[in-house]
Amino acid sequence: MTDHAPPSLLEELPGDLMMWVLIISELLIFGAGLVVFLSLRISDPIGFAEAQSHLDRTSAAVNTVILITSGYLAAKALHLRLNARRTVARLALVIAAALGAVFIAIKSAEFAEKAAQGISYDTHPFFMLYFLLTGFHAAHVVAGVLVLLLVAWRDTPEDVEIGAAFWHMVDLVWVLLFPVIYLLA
């Protein structure tokens, strides 16, 4: 009779360890950005409120629904792939990626609208952080769309799990950015 040690926390993590290192580091970077945003907001609540009034909350809310739906599809794709429904899993990943592309289109229109209004990163510290945080997030959405498409093409269960984990980080970051940047009064 052999005595087996229980699996370590690292051995129980779903997916790949390096993906978790990436996800945690990205969450720390976005978290630091949100801390800076909130700290500056405390020092200029009137200026931040006025600047925030120029944002399109409806588009941001639509983008929130889009990313949450896309995250659901990525999770569903993993479930489907694990249950040998490969074609449907691939379709779910492609639709999740397409929703990510719709998010980027809406975010691009929002950025273009700010430019048309003469608003840029140097208009107010609010906008510097708005463009930095939402632009950095948009870059992650683009990367996530590529990851989802790559995983739809090379769709081993492990790859789908890793791709979905990255996409969920992208979702989580937006779920944190949206209320802080668009709604916090």
The gist of it:
With 185 residues, the chain is an all-alpha fold. It has seven helices and no strands.
What do you see in this structure?
By secondary structure, this protein is mainly α. The protein has seven helices and no strands. The chain has helices spanning 9-12, 17-43, 45-52, 57-82, 86-116, 125-153, 157-183. α4 runs antiparallel to α7 (157-183) and α5 runs antiparallel to α6. The longest helix is centred in the middle third of the chain and has 31 residues, at 86-116.
Oligomeric state of shown chains = single chain
Q: Number of helical segments?
A: 7
Task: Note the run of SSEs as H and E.
Answer: HHHHHHH
Write down the overall mean pLDDT: 92
- Strand composition percent: under 5%
Which spans of ≥5 residues are poorly predicted at pLDDT below 50? none
- Beta-strand segment tally: 0
Structural class given helices, strands, pairing?
A: mainly alpha
Sheet with the most strands, sense and barrel status:
none
Overall helicity:
over 70%
> What characteristic shape results from the CA principal axes?
globular
